[in-house]
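Hi R.,

As promised on Friday, here is the backbone we talked about, encoded as C-alpha cells. Could you run it through your design pipeline when you get a chance and send me back a sequence?
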C-alpha cells in the first residue's frame, strides 16, 4: 500500500498538478489559512452580535437576481465568493439564530454546533458504516439516548435528516413487523393495514403512510380532548371497528408535543392499549421528547420509555444546527430486518476498516451519510444535558408568562392551553 502512495506522489508531484490545474488543493496554503480565519471570525462575529440585526428582512428582487447566473465554469477567488456570501446570503437567512425569532418550531443552533460542523467537514467522514472513530461517536450518542429515554441495551438509534425521515423509518419497521419481513421482496399489495393518530398529529405521518405504500387513507385520525390529546376511548373504538371490518390495525402514533399546540398524548395509556391490542407504539417527539432533560417536565412524558420507536430532532430543543433528526428503536432486530441490505462492497471483515457489526446503513435508507453525530455529541458534552434542560424549561416559563399576559388583556384571546412552549392566540395585524 505505502509503495502505491509513494509511486503516486512521485509521479503526480504538486508542481505538475499545480501547473495543469488538476488539484483542488489551495495554491497557497498560507493565504488559504488567512482567508479561513477571516471566515471564522465573520461567523463568530455574526453570532455574537446577532441581537443588533433584524430577525428577518425580505430579499430585494435585486439580491434575488444575483442567484440566477450561469454554471460557473471558471474559478473564482474564495475571498470574493465569501464576500458574496456576506452580502447576499447572510443578511437574508430565516433568522432562527436570533433570540427574537418565535416562528414555528425552529431550533436556534449554537456556536459549539457551528464549530463542530467545521470539524466534521474537515474529516469528511462517511458514516454509512465501517470501523472508525466517527462511528464510535454516533454509537456513544445512541447509548446516551437509550439512557435518557429509558430504552434497553437492545435498542438501536440512527441520525437522519429530521423527524419526517425518522417517522417514515418507524412506519416502515412497524409495517414490516406486521406483514413479515418478506414484504421487502414481495411488496405490499393492498394488505388492509390501518394506523392511528390524533387529528393533531404532524403531517409527515400521513406522508410516511403514503411513501411506505400503505396510503394516507389508512391513517385514522382520532378526535382529541379539550387539551388536544388523543381520545383513548375513541381510539379503542376505531381499532375495534376496523378489526370487525377485516382491516389489520398495526400502529398507533402518539405525539409528545404536537406541532400546533404542544399537546402531549397520554403515552402510558396508549402504551397499555398497544400492548393489549398487539400494535406497534411509535412516539413522534420531534421537539417535545427532549423535555426529558428538564426535571420539571420529564414526568409529563411518562410512557415514552415503553415506546417501540421514538422519533425526535436534536435540531429543535437540542439546539444542534440543522439537520440532526434521530430515530430510536426499542428492539434492534426488527430495525435491522427492515433496512439491512447485503452487498458485496458492504461485506464485513473480522478486523480492519471493514469490521464492525451493525453499521448505520443497516438501519435506514441511506448508505453514505455525514457526521451529524459530532455536532450533537459536542453540544451534549460541552453544555451538558442539565444546561440544555434548563434552557428548555426557560422557554416553557416564557410561554406561560405570555399566556398570563394574554389572559389579562381583553383584546386578546388564548386559543389553546399552553402545554410546553407554544402559545396560540390570534393577532390582529391592524392593531399591532
Ligand atoms: C418538526 C416536527 C416534525 C417534522 O420534523 P422535521 O425535522 O422537520 O422533519 C414532525 N413532528 C412534529 C411534532 C414536529 O414538531
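Update: got your reply. Pasting your designed sequence below so it's all in one thread:
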Amino acid at each position: 500500500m505505502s509503495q502505491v502512495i509513494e509511486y503516486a506522489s512521485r509521479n503526480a508531484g504538486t508542481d505538475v498538478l499545480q501547473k495543469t490545474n488538476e488539484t483542488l488543493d489551495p495554491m497557497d496554503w498560507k493565504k488559504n489559512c488567512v482567508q479561513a480565519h477571516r471566515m471564522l471570525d465573520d461567523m463568530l462575529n455574526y453570532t455574537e452580535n446577532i441581537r443588533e440585526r433584524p430577525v428577518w428582512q425580505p430579499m430585494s428582487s435585486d439580491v434575488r437576481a444575483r442567484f440566477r447566473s450561469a454554471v460557473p465554469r471558471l474559478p473564482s477567488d474564495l475571498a470574493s465568493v465569501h464576500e458574496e456570501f456576506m452580502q447576499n446570503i447572510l443578511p437574508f437567512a430565516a433568522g432562527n439564530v436570533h433570540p427574537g425569532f418565535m416562528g414555528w418550531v425552529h431550533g436556534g443552533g449554537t456556536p459549539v454546533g457551528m464549530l463542530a460542523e467545521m470539524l466534521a467537514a474537515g474529516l469528511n467522514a462517511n458514516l454509512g458504516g465501517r470501523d472508525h472513530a466517527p462511528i464510535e461517536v454516533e454509537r456513544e450518542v445512541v447509548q446516551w439516548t437509550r439512557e435518557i429515554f429509558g430504552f434497553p441495551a437492545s435498542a438501536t438509534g440512527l441520525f437522519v435528516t429530521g423527524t419526517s425521515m425518522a417517522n417514515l423509518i418507524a412506519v416502515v419497521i412497524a409495517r414490516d413487523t406486521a406483514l413479515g419481513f418478506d414484504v421487502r421482496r414481495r411488496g405490499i399489495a393492498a394488505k388492509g393495514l390501518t394506523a392511528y393518530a390524533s387529528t393533531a398529529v404532524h403531517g409527515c405521518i400521513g406522508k410516511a403512510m403514503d411513501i411506505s405504500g400503505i396510503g394516507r387513507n389508512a391513517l385514522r385520525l382520532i378526535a382529541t380532548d379539550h387539551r388536544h390529546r388523543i381520545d383513548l376511548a375513541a381510539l379503542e373504538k376505531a381499532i375495534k371497528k376496523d378489526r370487525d371490518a377485516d382491516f389489520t390495525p398495526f400502529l398507533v402514533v402518539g405525539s409528545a408535543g404536537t406541532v400546533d399546540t404542544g399537546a402531549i398524548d397520554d403515552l402510558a395509556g396508549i402504551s397499555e392499549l398497544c400492548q393489549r391490542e398487539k400494535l406497534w407504539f411509535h412516539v413522534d417527539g420531534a421537539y417535545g421528547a427532549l423535555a426529558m432533560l428538564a426535571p420539571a417536565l420529564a414526568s409529563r412524558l411518562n410512557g415514552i420509555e415503553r415506546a417501540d420507536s421514538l422519533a425526535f430532532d436534536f435540531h429543535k430543543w437540542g439546539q444542534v444546527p440543522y439537520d440532526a433528526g434521530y430515530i430510536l428503536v426499542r428492539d434492534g432486530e426488527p430495525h435491522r430486518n427492515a433496512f439491512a441490505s447485503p452487498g458485496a462492497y458492504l461485506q464485513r471483515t473480522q478486523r480492519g476498516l471493514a469490521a464492525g457489526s451493525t453499521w448505520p446503513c443497516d438501519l435506514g435508507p441511506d448508505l453514505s451519510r455525514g457526521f451529524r453525530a459530532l455536532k450533537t455529541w459536542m453540544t451534549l458534552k460541552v453544555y451538558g444535558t442539565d444546561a440544555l434542560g434548563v434552557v428548555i424549561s426557560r422557554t416553557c416559563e416564557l410561554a406561560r408568562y405570555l399566556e398570563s399576559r394574554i389572559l389579562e388583556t381583553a383584546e386578546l384571546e388564548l386559543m389553546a392551553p399552553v402545554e410546553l412552549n407554544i402559545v396560540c392566540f390570534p393577532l390582529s395585524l391592524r392593531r399591532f
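One thing I noticed while checking it: The chain has 16 helices and seven strands.

Thanks again,
M.
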